[in-house]
Protein backbone atom coordinates (compact mmCIF):
# COMPACT_ATOMS: atom_id res chain seq x y z
CA UNK A 1 0.00 0.00 0.00
CA UNK A 2 1.30 3.48 -0.85
CA UNK A 3 2.47 5.67 2.02
CA UNK A 4 0.38 8.60 0.71
CA UNK A 5 -2.83 6.62 0.56
CA UNK A 6 -5.58 7.87 2.90
CA UNK A 7 -5.99 5.86 6.09
CA UNK A 8 -9.26 4.12 6.73
CA UNK A 9 -10.68 2.11 9.54
CA UNK A 10 -11.28 2.68 13.25
CA UNK A 11 -7.89 4.35 13.90
CA UNK A 12 -8.54 7.08 11.30
CA UNK A 13 -12.06 7.58 12.59
CA UNK A 14 -10.70 8.10 16.09
CA UNK A 15 -8.14 10.63 14.93
CA UNK A 16 -10.55 12.80 12.92
CA UNK A 17 -12.80 13.99 15.79
CA UNK A 18 -9.76 14.61 17.99
CA UNK A 19 -8.26 16.90 15.34
CA UNK A 20 -11.46 18.91 15.09
CA UNK A 21 -12.03 19.17 18.85
CA UNK A 22 -11.36 22.76 20.01
CA UNK A 23 -8.97 23.38 22.86
CA UNK A 24 -10.23 24.22 26.31
CA UNK A 25 -8.79 27.73 26.07
CA UNK A 26 -10.33 28.23 22.62
CA UNK A 27 -13.74 27.23 23.93
CA UNK A 28 -13.32 29.66 26.81
CA UNK A 29 -12.50 32.49 24.39
CA UNK A 30 -15.40 31.55 22.13
CA UNK A 31 -17.83 31.68 25.02
CA UNK A 32 -16.55 35.10 26.09
CA UNK A 33 -17.03 36.40 22.56
CA UNK A 34 -20.49 34.84 22.36
CA UNK A 35 -21.42 36.33 25.74
CA UNK A 36 -20.35 39.80 24.63
CA UNK A 37 -22.25 39.62 21.35
CA UNK A 38 -25.32 38.20 23.12
CA UNK A 39 -25.23 41.03 25.68
CA UNK A 40 -25.11 43.67 22.96
CA UNK A 41 -27.99 41.89 21.23
CA UNK A 42 -30.10 41.98 24.40
CA UNK A 43 -29.45 45.71 24.73
CA UNK A 44 -30.55 46.30 21.15
CA UNK A 45 -33.62 44.11 21.64
CA UNK A 46 -34.91 46.44 24.40
CA UNK A 47 -33.64 49.89 23.41
CA UNK A 48 -35.94 51.98 25.59
CA UNK A 49 -35.39 49.99 28.76
CA UNK A 50 -31.65 49.96 28.09
CA UNK A 51 -31.64 53.71 27.40
CA UNK A 52 -33.42 54.36 30.72
CA UNK A 53 -30.87 52.33 32.69
CA UNK A 54 -27.94 53.93 30.85
CA UNK A 55 -29.38 57.41 31.39
CA UNK A 56 -29.80 56.91 35.14
CA UNK A 57 -26.25 55.59 35.42
CA UNK A 58 -24.91 58.46 33.31
CA UNK A 59 -26.51 61.06 35.59
CA UNK A 60 -25.09 59.29 38.64
CA UNK A 61 -21.63 59.37 37.05
CA UNK A 62 -21.84 62.88 35.61
CA UNK A 63 -22.55 64.64 38.92
CA UNK A 64 -19.31 63.75 40.75
CA UNK A 65 -17.29 63.91 37.54
CA UNK A 66 -18.63 67.40 36.83
CA UNK A 67 -17.77 68.54 40.35
CA UNK A 68 -14.29 67.05 39.99
CA UNK A 69 -13.75 68.88 36.68
CA UNK A 70 -15.01 72.14 38.18
CA UNK A 71 -12.60 71.85 41.09
CA UNK A 72 -9.75 71.16 38.70
CA UNK A 73 -10.55 74.33 36.75
CA UNK A 74 -10.81 76.38 39.94
CA UNK A 75 -7.40 75.13 41.09
CA UNK A 76 -5.95 76.00 37.69
CA UNK A 77 -7.60 79.43 37.75
CA UNK A 78 -6.07 80.35 41.10
CA UNK A 79 -2.75 78.70 40.27
CA UNK A 80 -1.12 82.00 39.29
CA UNK A 81 -2.21 83.56 42.56
CA UNK A 82 -0.88 80.61 44.51
CA UNK A 83 2.47 80.75 42.74
CA UNK A 84 2.94 84.54 42.79
CA UNK A 85 2.43 85.02 46.55
CA UNK A 86 3.35 88.68 46.22
CA UNK A 87 3.82 90.82 49.31
CA UNK A 88 3.24 94.57 48.96
CA UNK A 89 5.31 96.73 51.30
CA UNK A 90 4.05 100.33 51.48
CA UNK A 91 6.88 102.54 52.65
CA UNK A 92 6.43 105.59 54.85
CA UNK A 93 5.69 108.82 52.93
CA UNK A 94 8.92 110.44 54.08
CA UNK A 95 11.08 107.64 52.59
CA UNK A 96 12.79 109.01 49.46
CA UNK A 97 12.84 107.14 46.18
CA UNK A 98 16.65 106.75 46.40
CA UNK A 99 16.31 105.09 49.79
CA UNK A 100 13.53 102.88 48.39
CA UNK A 101 15.87 101.71 45.60
CA UNK A 102 18.60 100.90 48.12
CA UNK A 103 16.12 98.97 50.22
CA UNK A 104 14.89 97.05 47.16
CA UNK A 105 18.46 96.09 46.24
CA UNK A 106 19.14 94.94 49.81
CA UNK A 107 16.01 92.81 49.90
CA UNK A 108 16.75 91.26 46.49
CA UNK A 109 20.05 89.92 47.85
CA UNK A 110 18.32 87.97 50.63
CA UNK A 111 17.95 84.23 50.28
CA UNK A 112 14.26 84.18 51.25
CA UNK A 113 13.36 86.74 48.56
CA UNK A 114 12.76 85.68 44.98
CA UNK A 115 12.38 89.10 43.36
CA UNK A 116 11.66 92.72 44.29
CA UNK A 117 9.91 95.37 42.18
CA UNK A 118 9.91 99.05 43.13
CA UNK A 119 6.88 101.14 42.25
CA UNK A 120 7.60 104.83 42.70
CA UNK A 121 4.92 107.35 43.70
CA UNK A 122 4.88 108.66 40.11
CA UNK A 123 4.24 105.17 38.75
CA UNK A 124 1.48 104.63 41.28
CA UNK A 125 -0.16 107.92 40.37
CA UNK A 126 -0.07 107.10 36.66
CA UNK A 127 -1.59 103.70 37.30
CA UNK A 128 -4.32 105.26 39.44
CA UNK A 129 -5.06 107.85 36.78
CA UNK A 130 -5.26 105.23 34.02
CA UNK A 131 -7.44 102.86 36.05
CA UNK A 132 -9.89 105.27 37.65
CA UNK A 133 -10.26 108.06 35.10
CA UNK A 134 -10.28 110.65 37.91
CA UNK A 135 -7.84 113.03 36.25
CA UNK A 136 -9.59 116.17 37.47
CA UNK A 137 -9.81 114.99 41.07
CA UNK A 138 -6.15 113.96 41.06
CA UNK A 139 -5.15 117.35 39.64
CA UNK A 140 -6.96 119.11 42.48
CA UNK A 141 -4.93 117.19 45.07
CA UNK A 142 -1.72 118.79 43.91
CA UNK A 143 1.24 117.03 45.46
CA UNK A 144 1.48 113.29 44.97
CA UNK A 145 0.31 111.65 48.22
CA UNK A 146 1.23 108.10 47.22
CA UNK A 147 4.19 106.34 48.85
CA UNK A 148 6.79 104.09 47.26
CA UNK A 149 5.78 100.43 47.16
CA UNK A 150 8.00 97.37 47.16
CA UNK A 151 6.39 94.30 45.56
CA UNK A 152 8.26 91.32 47.00
CA UNK A 153 7.97 87.80 45.66
CA UNK A 154 8.94 85.25 48.34
CA UNK A 155 11.63 82.69 47.69
CA UNK A 156 10.81 80.63 50.77
CA UNK A 157 8.45 80.86 53.73
CA UNK A 158 6.16 83.76 52.88
CA UNK A 159 4.70 84.10 56.37
CA UNK A 160 8.12 84.52 57.97
CA UNK A 161 9.16 86.94 55.22
CA UNK A 162 6.02 89.03 55.71
CA UNK A 163 6.76 89.30 59.44
CA UNK A 164 10.36 90.39 58.78
CA UNK A 165 9.25 92.97 56.21
CA UNK A 166 6.71 94.40 58.66
CA UNK A 167 9.57 94.92 61.13
CA UNK A 168 11.51 97.18 58.74
CA UNK A 169 11.72 100.76 60.04
CA UNK A 170 10.84 102.12 56.57
CA UNK A 171 7.71 99.96 56.26
CA UNK A 172 4.37 101.62 56.92
CA UNK A 173 2.01 98.82 55.81
CA UNK A 174 2.54 95.23 54.63
CA UNK A 175 -0.25 93.74 52.53
CA UNK A 176 -0.24 89.98 52.36
CA UNK A 177 -3.00 87.62 51.20
CA UNK A 178 -1.78 84.44 52.90
CA UNK A 179 -4.92 84.16 55.03
CA UNK A 180 -7.13 84.42 51.96
CA UNK A 181 -5.13 81.74 50.17
CA UNK A 182 -5.27 79.45 53.18
CA UNK A 183 -9.04 79.80 53.26
CA UNK A 184 -9.23 79.12 49.54
CA UNK A 185 -7.10 76.00 49.99
CA UNK A 186 -9.44 74.85 52.74
CA UNK A 187 -12.46 75.31 50.47
CA UNK A 188 -10.75 73.41 47.68
CA UNK A 189 -9.89 70.53 50.00
CA UNK A 190 -13.49 70.50 51.18
CA UNK A 191 -14.68 70.41 47.56
CA UNK A 192 -12.42 67.46 46.78
CA UNK A 193 -13.72 65.61 49.83
CA UNK A 194 -17.30 66.41 48.79
CA UNK A 195 -16.62 65.10 45.26
CA UNK A 196 -15.26 61.85 46.69
CA UNK A 197 -18.29 61.39 48.94
CA UNK A 198 -20.67 62.07 46.07
CA UNK A 199 -18.73 59.71 43.83
CA UNK A 200 -19.02 56.97 46.44
CA UNK A 201 -22.74 57.45 47.06
CA UNK A 202 -23.72 57.87 43.42
CA UNK A 203 -21.38 55.04 42.42
CA UNK A 204 -23.26 52.76 44.81
CA UNK A 205 -26.50 54.02 43.28
CA UNK A 206 -25.26 53.22 39.77
CA UNK A 207 -24.14 49.79 40.94
CA UNK A 208 -27.62 49.11 42.36
CA UNK A 209 -29.28 50.27 39.15
CA UNK A 210 -27.22 47.82 37.09
CA UNK A 211 -27.77 45.08 39.63
CA UNK A 212 -31.53 45.51 39.59
CA UNK A 213 -31.62 45.56 35.78
CA UNK A 214 -29.57 42.37 35.56
CA UNK A 215 -31.72 40.75 38.26
CA UNK A 216 -34.84 41.41 36.17
CA UNK A 217 -33.10 39.95 33.14
CA UNK A 218 -32.23 36.80 35.10
CA UNK A 219 -35.83 36.46 36.24
CA UNK A 220 -37.00 36.63 32.64
CA UNK A 221 -34.52 33.87 31.70
CA UNK A 222 -35.16 31.73 34.77
CA UNK A 223 -36.12 28.65 32.77
CA UNK A 224 -33.00 28.90 30.61
CA UNK A 225 -30.81 29.31 33.70
CA UNK A 226 -32.52 26.38 35.41
CA UNK A 227 -31.91 24.10 32.40
CA UNK A 228 -28.23 25.06 32.31
CA UNK A 229 -27.90 24.34 36.03
CA UNK A 230 -29.51 20.93 35.65
CA UNK A 231 -27.13 20.13 32.81
CA UNK A 232 -24.21 20.81 35.15
CA UNK A 233 -23.13 24.23 33.88
CA UNK A 234 -20.94 26.11 36.34
CA UNK A 235 -21.97 29.42 37.85
CA UNK A 236 -19.18 31.14 35.95
CA UNK A 237 -20.50 29.82 32.64
CA UNK A 238 -24.06 30.99 33.41
CA UNK A 239 -22.98 34.30 34.91
CA UNK A 240 -20.67 35.37 32.07
CA UNK A 241 -23.34 36.82 29.69
CA UNK A 242 -24.85 38.82 32.55
CA UNK A 243 -21.44 40.21 33.53
CA UNK A 244 -20.91 41.43 30.00
CA UNK A 245 -24.39 42.91 30.03
CA UNK A 246 -23.54 44.92 33.17
CA UNK A 247 -20.21 46.00 31.65
CA UNK A 248 -21.99 47.19 28.51
CA UNK A 249 -24.38 49.24 30.62
CA UNK A 250 -21.42 50.78 32.45
CA UNK A 251 -19.36 51.60 29.34
CA UNK A 252 -22.32 53.19 27.56
CA UNK A 253 -23.23 55.16 30.68
CA UNK A 254 -19.63 56.40 30.97
CA UNK A 255 -19.65 57.51 27.33
CA UNK A 256 -22.98 59.29 27.81
CA UNK A 257 -21.74 61.03 30.96
CA UNK A 258 -18.65 62.26 29.09
CA UNK A 259 -20.83 63.48 26.23
CA UNK A 260 -23.05 65.43 28.64
CA UNK A 261 -20.06 66.99 30.41
CA UNK A 262 -18.40 67.86 27.08
CA UNK A 263 -21.58 69.55 25.85
CA UNK A 264 -21.79 71.47 29.12
CA UNK A 265 -18.16 72.57 28.73
CA UNK A 266 -18.77 73.82 25.19
CA UNK A 267 -21.85 75.72 26.35
CA UNK A 268 -20.07 77.44 29.26
CA UNK A 269 -16.64 78.05 27.70
CA UNK A 270 -17.43 81.23 25.68
CA UNK A 271 -19.22 83.00 28.54
CA UNK A 272 -16.53 82.07 31.07
CA UNK A 273 -13.73 83.14 28.72
CA UNK A 274 -15.42 86.52 28.23
CA UNK A 275 -15.79 86.93 32.00
CA UNK A 276 -12.11 86.03 32.52
CA UNK A 277 -11.01 88.54 29.86
CA UNK A 278 -12.89 91.28 31.70
CA UNK A 279 -10.52 90.63 34.61
CA UNK A 280 -7.46 90.58 32.34
CA UNK A 281 -7.07 86.81 32.39
CA UNK A 282 -6.73 84.35 29.50
CA UNK A 283 -8.33 81.52 31.46
CA UNK A 284 -10.12 78.88 29.37
CA UNK A 285 -12.37 76.15 30.69
CA UNK A 286 -10.86 72.69 30.20
CA UNK A 287 -12.58 69.32 30.26
CA UNK A 288 -11.22 65.81 30.57
CA UNK A 289 -8.20 64.75 28.55
CA UNK A 290 -7.99 61.54 26.56
CA UNK A 291 -6.33 59.60 29.38
CA UNK A 292 -8.95 60.68 31.93
CA UNK A 293 -11.79 59.95 29.48
CA UNK A 294 -10.53 56.41 28.85
CA UNK A 295 -10.11 55.84 32.60
CA UNK A 296 -13.67 57.06 33.22
CA UNK A 297 -15.15 54.72 30.61
CA UNK A 298 -13.16 51.75 31.92
CA UNK A 299 -14.11 52.58 35.50
CA UNK A 300 -17.79 52.79 34.55
CA UNK A 301 -17.52 49.42 32.81
CA UNK A 302 -15.91 47.87 35.88
CA UNK A 303 -18.68 49.37 38.03
CA UNK A 304 -21.34 47.76 35.84
CA UNK A 305 -19.43 44.46 35.87
CA UNK A 306 -19.29 44.47 39.68
CA UNK A 307 -22.99 45.29 40.03
CA UNK A 308 -23.95 42.48 37.68
CA UNK A 309 -21.55 40.08 39.39
CA UNK A 310 -22.91 40.71 42.89
CA UNK A 311 -26.55 40.32 41.89
CA UNK A 312 -25.96 37.35 39.58
CA UNK A 313 -23.95 35.41 42.14
CA UNK A 314 -26.64 35.89 44.79
CA UNK A 315 -29.45 34.97 42.39
CA UNK A 316 -27.73 31.85 41.09
CA UNK A 317 -27.14 30.58 44.63
CA UNK A 318 -30.86 30.87 45.28
CA UNK A 319 -31.93 29.20 42.03
CA UNK A 320 -29.39 26.32 42.00
CA UNK A 321 -31.24 23.02 42.51
CA UNK A 322 -30.46 21.12 45.71
CA UNK A 323 -29.70 17.42 45.93
CA UNK A 324 -32.53 15.29 47.37
Task: Briefly characterize the structure.
It is found in: Cell inner membrane. This protein has 324 residues and is α+β, with helices and mostly antiparallel strands. Helix content is 73%, strand content 7%.
Describe this structure in words.
This protein has 324 residues and is of the alpha+beta class. It folds into 2 domains: 188 residues, no CATH class; 77 residues, no CATH class. It is 73% helix and 7% strand. The chain contains 12 helices and 4 strands, in the order ααααβαβααβαβαααα. It has a 4-stranded antiparallel sheet with strand order 2-3-1-4. α2 crosses α11, α3 packs antiparallel against α9 and α3 packs across α11. The chain is elongated. The N terminus is likely disordered.
Q: Note the total helix count.
A: 12
Which residues sit in consecutive blocks of at least 5 with pLDDT less than 50? 1-19
* Secondary structure: helix percent: over 70%
Structural class per helix/strand content? alpha+beta
How many discrete domains? 2
Distance between the termini: 59 Å
In round numbers, the mean pLDDT is 76
Shape: elongated
**What is the beta-strand fraction?**
5-15%
Query: Secondary-structure element order, as H and E?
Result: HHHHEHEHHEHEHHHH
Rg: 35 Å
Major beta sheet summary = 4 strands, antiparallel
Number of strands: 4
Q: In which order are the strands of the major sheet placed?
A: 2-3-1-4
InterPro entries: ABC3_permease_C, FtsX, FtsX_ECD, FtsX_proteobact-type
Keywords: Cell cycle, Cell division, Cell inner membrane, Cell membrane, Membrane, Transmembrane, Transmembrane helix
Function: Part of the ABC transporter FtsEX involved in cellular division.
Pfam family, one: FtsX
